[in-house]
Amino acid sequence: MNRAGPDDLPNALPRPPGEEEKLKRVWATPRGWRILSAVNNTVVGVAYLGFAFLFFLLAGVVALVMRTQLAVPGNDVVGQDLYNQLFTMHGTTMMFLFAVPAMEALGVLLLPQMLAARDLPFPRLSAFAIWAYVIGGLVFFSTIFYGLAPKGGWFMYPPLTLTEYSPGDNADFWLLGIGFIEISAIAGAIEIVVGTLRTRPPGMSLTKMPIFAWAMLIFAAMIMFAFPAVILATMLLEIERAFGWPFFSAEKGGDPLLWQHLFWFFGHPEVYIIFLPAAGLVSMIVPAMARRPLIGYRLIVVALIGTGFFSFGLWVHHMFATGLPALSLAFFSAVSMAVAIPSGIQVFSWIATIAASEGRFRITTPSLFVLGFLAIFTLGGLTGVMVALVPVDLQVHDTYFVVAHFHYVLIGGMVFPLFATFYYWAPMVSRRRLSETLGRITFWLMFIGFNVAFLPMHLTGLRGMPRRVWTYPGDVGWDMLNMISTVGAFILAAGVLVFIVDLLRNFRPTAGGGGAGDPWGAGTLEWLPGDVYAARSIPLVRSREPLWDQPNLAREVEEGRHFLPNAPTGGRETLVCSPVEAKPEYVLQMPGPGWSHVLAAIFMAGFFLLLTVKLVVPAVLSGIACIIACIWWGWSLDPGPVKGDVPIGAGIVLPTYVSGPRSHAWWAMIVLVFVATSLYIAYVFSYLYLWVVSPDAWSPHGAPALPPATWPLASGALVAAGAAAMLLAGRRLPAPGRPSATAPLLLAFAALAMTGAVVLEVLGHWYSGLRPGQNAYAAATYMASVLNVQVGIAVVLLAGYAIARSLVGCLDAVRRVNFDNCAILYPYGAVQILLSLLLVHGFPRMAG
Amino acid sequence: MRSEPTASFWGTLLYILAGPLLWAVQFTLIYAGHTAACLPAVPETLAVPLVAVPTVAAALAAVAFILRQEAFARALGAPEPPRAAALHAIARIAVLLALVAVIWSGFALALVDSCLAGR
Fold it and tell me: Can you give the residue ranges of the Cytochrome oxidase subunit I profile domain (chain A) (predicted)?
């Protein structure tokens, strides 16, 4: 591509008449009730954020009920059982239904604007994620109203949550409800990873990305690796509750600590999954208010990457009191302290930027929330270093000191930046700004209320008050501190109430039609003038703050002088660039509004929720309906190369259809393979962990002898033959317009071979006399097959879909994305099955 | 834009994540190694080499990366210096950060006995 100089813009004036009108028509959002079918990121993002905020309010009301109960000793506003449900729902809702979704919502809403993309690459996936989350979240939260809410704490530790100690459906609502919402989070993460890497504007190399984009990229990558651990954990616990496979029952060789390992391998990164995007938001607001570039951009990128990695080495600091070897504790203690270094780097960068402001640092409502964040988060970080020390942790474990610590980190580190975001970015999506006066009142009430509520909790904890108690005696010195905390909680709530008044009075969403403009004079692309189609043309970027460094950029973009100022294919499109240096590669044709993804979300919710209340047949029917909706959804997503190549400006002509590693679909599948790998690694850890705990349960001592080697060998041969068939099928795809049965037949063989391999593996163990409920070894052995069945079903569905596309002439050697999707998953599945055979058949022989 | 060779994404990713990946490998090895060394059937004396060797190896690898950064960039297909100066700075600082974490966690071996119950 040729470099375009300042006066040598990609497209010339005058633009052809009707160009902008066509863009408006193509990107128009549906009106009335049809808005539910909308996929534009500005509509979906605002709705997503709105629902996340609703859950924040609901969980906040739950917190106020708890604080009222604890205001005085011996109180009886709520009973013990309801209190258990309340604290479980408060933590679960805040973490799973508010914090992570709010950050994903901001990714959906802000990323395309910051990257000047017309939308994220999978708009219907974003919309699917939000509907799945809304339906699942509302049903899950409503359980509190009819006594079905879980009551095992937000971390649901077994053995308390095993059927013996938690009968009924309460715990199942948590396990299936949260598992389902995690799928929504992973869908969002795929969208964010591919969107950030592939839909940046030309010239915006990795090191010119806004810090928020870096933060969201790392956030999404962390979801890819952290969430599978808790998905596996919820699967294991639900399977134990439903079918009696004893993963966590010590009397049968299981171990409750396995849950803690899996849960906290997700749970601690979760804190940073919430914090990193918030830090990214702060890194965007501070330079705008300081009117200068962020000091230490490179250091902040390193800090984000470092925090993302280190956060996976901290999980055991939630388990310091469980009796693990002291040296192991020391490893985790060291990393728990080391993670303060990258966090500190960011804090000092923000302070330096504020101190070096061009003129005085502007004190606005967003700035106040940022300054409040700095004060509160730093205090939370300091107590974090305290609890990273094993002896201190043992002293304060499970006391209100820990409650104070993590509220300083989470409210300071996420809620305050979120409110700064509301005030800072509202003009981008609303015709009116939020009120500065009400904003300042909101801030001060929240800041004072927060500190009045949570500062005394450090002392309450040091005086020995344990967490999760529904009441306490009046003669142990906790009365006054608790009363102060309750007063503070209500002041904090009053601040949120003022914010809601502000929202009702001033927030007027524009459904993507351009907001109130840029009141801050910021330098990043989300403040480009735009309409439903986002920016009129996609700019050529030369720096990190293009609006500061290219003063005419906004006008040039609005005039359509940059890339893709039109809709050359006649539909929705955006530009896809290379992931490192952002060189234009192709024009991505995107789907518009539709109902298939909405139905898929509804039926998927139906599947999980009906399963929770043991309505198996309706659940299966709902699952089948979900698959049908997904097929309907996918059918329109592969338009083929019919539109040919199109010009985008600067003499560049790009294809409108690509396959293989250049395609965004290929990238999404690769991300999915990473997620599956992560889930499988968590399983291998679980298998080996259970062996370490109970080697006596393993075959041949504690269980029947393994099946003869012919079983795994036959299984392995089948899957290897299937992989070979898949490889051959890729080479035998017919030329366009020349139908052939070879590739579909090879695909069918490959799918059947994988199915056969999985069935053989299960039958081998069954005929050896092993039953999954027998002990932890048996359960772990059959669990490998459960995971292989999962992958097998996905492969069969993808292969069947590719065969169907082939039969109607929509799959050939050029139009091959649907085949590639299956061809990416198949080798992964084959490797997973072969590794399972090695582990399940080889390890007991080696260890026994 | 210039017609320079397109940088490899996976190579660039590996390049900027080299430090954190080194730390992750060392951390996994020392945690798993120490756990294995404390199993009843394994001699406890193995704990020291199982922690010390990965720590020293990771620290040396980090130092090698810092000294031969350009060669690593070239080998991995990342944009070579002086292109993308920020990318190289990020990779270098990330390795330094990882080096601190590697030494910090490995140093615990000098302070705490292996296989001692944690409470």
Answer: 21-554
